[in-house]
Amino acid sequence: MTDWIRVLIVDDIEETRMNLRKALSFESRIDVVAEAENGFQAIDFACKYKPDIILMDINMPDMDGIQATERISLKCPSANVIVISVQREQDYLRKAMLAGAKEFLIKPFSPDELIQAVITVYEKNKQRAVQVYAHQILEQGYVQSPKIITVFSGKGGVGKSLIAANLAAGLNQRNKKVVVLDLDLMFGDIAAMFNLKVKETIYHVVQEIERLDAESLLSYLYETNSGVRVLAAPLRPEQSEVVTGKHVEKILRLLKETHDYVIVDTPAQLTDPVLALDSSNLTLLVNTLNIPVFRHNRTVLEVMDAVNYPTDRVRLIINRADLDTGIKPKDIKTALGMEPYSLLPEDKYADLSINRGEPLIEMKPGSKWAKQMNKLIEMISAEDERSKSESWLSRFVWKKKRK
Predict the structure, then answer these.
(1) pLDDT digits (tens, 9 = 90+) for 39-57
(2) 332-387 pLDDT, tens per residue?
(3) How distant, in Å, are the alpha carbons of 35, 134, 199, 236, 262 from that of 140?
(4) Using alpha carbons only, what angle is made at residue 29 by residues 25 and 34, rounded to the nearest 5 degrees?
């Protein structure tokens, strides 16, 4: 899989930083996310920008590259440091490696040598990270009751993707392993919601679907700064045509092996891939106080009833519930035959959070919308705990009956 490689350049000389940036520009995969001019700034930027690779000059005033590398290895262990120096002595190499550096480059070097070092360190450590992650899951055995939550609406523009992204971010804050599957295959926005630059998507997963297992699927997921994983929608609309319901069924099954929650964002159509979500534990049906939205979602509920989808798995979410549209939340039960599960207010920061690619509950945790979203997440978590308890009790009773 081909990823973007996020790089932080650390050097006290501006010209050197400029030359390194220029050399890296010859590789399209590499994205220089920031430059630091001293060790203290490097530590701050490593935690702030979450780079994959840090190019660290060894000789800097105030705090040298060795000290900065040691602190970064403790505070931001996911960052891989490549130390750069004119010193050839083995002692420098030994100190750099003991501090946590993954590679040691001696000046002068060519752009090709620099790029190759960055790619090699990145690929090697990404493979190791995937193996460690999979091993931890197997060791801990905590993905015992994985849940699929689908966010759907019969009408677009109601805030499905906003809700899906924030639901994932909120569950992640509660120390759950969360992945978002973007099934809006033609025009999915989940990657943008997390400010992710993606090159591989569900389209590429489908090309390898016969050979994939849970561990190899992890390599196609992109991880956000906070730890949410994303399987992105295709980059081009025509690529959506190759994804079928059977593909989605297998992808969901594999994702459940390695995550506590699979959050599924969807288009406003009941397509073949979306219909494969019959295995969802919960469907959040998103509405706004708008008659066309009600009409479309009433049709959705009728279709669910026709195909015997259990309505007790459906929860009505009202987004922008405080807007004066002439319709009150109390009218919803009359229109749809269900009580609203959660009322989310209009929020002036919603568009800003979307444009920044930062979930609202992370960007503005004190906002009314974020507080209501957290209440929704608590309600969902409480339901999960009850279902786990009931499942345990039913197994216990069944065993007693067998005796």
Answers:
(1) 999 999 998 888 999 999 9
(2) 888 888 899 999 999 999 999 999 999 999 999 999 999 999 999 999 988 876 66
(3) 38, 10, 31, 38, 19
(4) 60
Q: What is the pLDDT of residue 139?
A: 53
Give φ, ψ of 229 to 5 degrees.
-105, 150
**Looking at domain 5-132, which of 3.40.190.10, 3.40.50.2300, 2.40.30.20, 3.40.50.620 is its CATH number?**
3.40.50.2300
Structure tokens at 21: 């940036």
Domain positions in the chain? 5-132, 143-390
CATH annotation of 143-390? 3.40.50.300
Tokens of 345: 């207010």
- The answer to whether residues 69 and 101 touch, using CB atoms and an 8 Å cutoff, is yes
Would the CATH topology of 5-132 be identical to that of 143-390? yes
Tell how far CA 144 is from the center of its chain. Answer: 21
The b-or-e profile of 134-145 (16+ CB within 10 A means b, else e) is beebeeeeebee
> 217-245 pLDDT, tens per residue?
988 999 888 889 999 999 999 999 999 98
Instruction: Please tell me the pTM assigned to this model.
Output: 0.70
- Greatest C-alpha distance within the chain: 79
Which residue in 230, 164, 161 sits closest to 201, CA to CA?
A: 230
